[in-house]
Amino acid sequence: MAFIYRPLENPREDIRLLSLLPGGVDDPLQCIIRHTSLPDLPPGIVSGSYDISEIQKTLPEGWSATQTHEYRLMFEHEATETISWSHPDPQFDHTQFEPPPPPQPAGPVPAYEALSYVWGSAADHQFALVANAGAHSNSVSGPHNGPPPDFLPLRITRNLAEALTSLRLPDEARTLWIDAICINQEDKAERNHQVLRMAALYTMARRVLIWLGPESPDSGEAMSTLDYLGSQVEISINTARFASPDAVEKRWYRAEVPLPYSASTWDAIQALFWRPYFERVWVTQEVILANPQAVVICGPHEAPWRNFVRAIICLGTKHDIAPGLRDRFNHIRTLTWKHSDISLFLILNMMRRQQCSDLRDKVYGVLGITPPGFSRRIQPDYQLPISEVFKNAFLAALEHTNRLVLLQDCELLGPSTPWPSWVPDWSVSRKSNLLSAFTFASGISRSHHRFIEPDTLEVLGRRVGRIREASAFCPDTPLAALEHVRTWAPAGLLTEAYAAGGSLLDAFLLTLRLGYVRERFPCGTAGTLATWREFFLDRLHNTSEPLQTDDIAHDGEVYWTTVFTKSRCFVTTDEGYIGLGPPGVMAGDVACSILGSNSLIVLREAPDGRHRVVGECYIQGMDDATGILGPLPDCWAVEVDKDSSGFGLHQFRNHHTDILTSEDPRLPPLSPPWQALETEREPGGPAIWACYQNELNGEVIHSDPRLLPESLEERGIELESFKLC
Starting from the edge strand earliest in sequence, which strands make up the sheet with 73-77, in order? Predict the structure, then answer.
């Protein structure tokens, strides 16, 4: 007779907890399942962040304050690069600047650890012995020889059995929450309710146990190496890197400083991060929701997760690591983010690369880290077709954000799709990389849309160019990509002027980098346009000689080119502009600036007059809302910095006066009844964000009112309606 679950009295409030009974390595797994209540999470997301601007006022000249990833204060003397946990004034009273304590749950929270692990194949199973409903007493403890009458077998995967065997304590019970056991997976109604409780379950756990799997010959070396590296580095809340005040290796945090690791150590690190754990959908929210006490466990080895976070971020910036490993760190880096700082767009996009047995979990598996305004619009239902789950997620995101950024995640690769072209296919990985972190196609605008049942979405925007010619898309591998990119060079590259001004050469170079040069991104790691131009002419331009070595593809000057051009097509427009299009772009397609979209969107007209979404694109000279507002005055240029959350902050610099402002010089002065508000970004809000209030009715919007359709049309800027199908 197998173990039978007793229904939860109230699935919206109750949970099951597992008491893993003590035992040795060779003893059978024995446990007790009990029911208890878990209060809801308090409303809102409290960051624990200090007001750094106020603390800065207390510092002597030459000192600056920052906060670590865990919101701990850190002080730096900029001239000497001295880092300290202590304020330079020993009389400083930090208590007067401490943020308010987070709100407490409405009821008592049981003490338990939450397990984060890979389920593994259901076909490869073992059994745990679970006390039946009549055996919930403290007298049940210790191992037994064979299944006693009051224990019943419960089938679990081999992966879970390995984890429990390793986590079991020798002399006391361990209280755990484990999804595969504590949720009755056969009860779909219970699953639907419990999925909505994941945020509370992992946030309120005493700590999260991140189980990577059993030990391998080199996993111990990888664990200790990453633990030590993480202890030498500190990461600020906007991901800037510093040497830890306690560091022995004071320079390891720097991107240009190589780490003294042997080839075998790098192999061990790579093997650890290629474990299946890092591919799973559910682990993303489980890790992001974990408190700072979370631990990483691999066989008998443990390390604080906070040290892994620092190590992952540090390694991802190193200049001297192989591109494949760098890409892996950039993939895993999403686990290091705080959910209050992740846009909904990025959360859904990063699930494309994660694996799950039920594709609905590409949405349901991240509800714990999505903004409440989105998650409350989603009711998990594992009976719905996947197409409906994805469409509902798009519409919920649209209503929550008033942005059309999810259009940027669409890629039309064939003549037909199982759902509307404006709904991203999160079931598969993207072919190309996202452009939107580097683009500003419609300014700080909100979407203006209408959903027409069953599958039409009407949006507003402007056409910025018709595609005259599109190349074959660029290969994936870096060296092959560079060989391909060299064939894109337009005729007259070294002599002709560009349609938007300047030289054709500079326009081509900026296209290959999406404008990612130091002039536009002064706080980034990119070189100047002049440096990139010199490198290109010296090492890439001469197509009569093949590239002889793979080293050039690893050079920092061309790394971003291989990232941005991956699986993209080089396009020219009827108007003489050049750019990068999505992999499915064709001649005759139209590049459009859609209100509420950060990137230009390529549309293809359907026979009935509606349009299909082909994907996002970059047209050199049509960024920075140029397709809507026209070009910037000659003396103005956009500079992109980071705000306190690490999002891009677009500002405008006048090169005659050196004034740097957030005010777009093409826009008229803000007029009544609208006024700008100085507020913090809302957790999970749009990446491009501002706050304005209507003084007459109190309405608050997170977009510039001067980019509302009625305001644009008053200034003679005509908009077009596109019905997307």
Answer: 63-67, 73-77, 82-84
Residue with tokens 């890629």: 411
Cut 0.85: pTM above it:
yes
- Rounded Cα distance between 63 and 88, Å, is 8
Instruction: Tell me the per-residue pLDDT of 522-578, one tens digit each, with 9 for 90 and over.
Output: 987 788 999 999 999 988 888 777 776 656 766 667 888 988 999 999 999 999 999
Tally the domains of the chain: 4
Report the half-sphere exposure of 701 (CA within 13 A, side-chain side).
19
- 458, amino acid identity: E
CB 640 within 8 A of CB 648: yes
Write down the pLDDT at residue 342. Answer: 79
Structure tokens at 695: 């003084």
The whole-number pLDDT of residue 137 equals 36
Q: Which two tokens stand for residue 325?
A: 């490993």
270 within some domain: yes
Q: d(Cα 314, Cα 126) in Å, to the nearest integer?
A: 39
Tell me how far apart the alpha carbons of residues 496 and 486 are, in angstroms, rounded to a whole number: 17
For residue 183, what are the contacts with CB-CB under 8 A and spacing of at least 6?
16, 190, 191, 194
Q: Which residues contact 172 (CB under 8 A, 6 or more apart)?
A: 22
For tokens 């007790």, the residue is 32
Over the stretch 209-220, which tens digit does the pLDDT of each residue have?
999 999 999 999
pLDDT score at 478: 82
Residues 248-285: tens digit of each pLDDT: 999 999 989 999 999 999 999 999 999 999 999 999 99
Quote the pLDDT of residue 542.
82
Instruction: Report the residue count for the chain.
Output: 725
The letter for the amino acid at 149 is P
Q: Verify cis geometry, omega within 30 degrees of 0, for the bond prior to 673.
A: yes
Find the farthest-apart pair of alpha carbons in the chain and give their distance in angstroms, rounded. Answer: 88
Instruction: Specify if 388 maps to a domain.
Output: no
Task: Give the structural domain span for 116.
Answer: 14-35+106-204
Do residues 84 and 222 both lie within one domain? no
Does 639 map to a domain? Answer: no
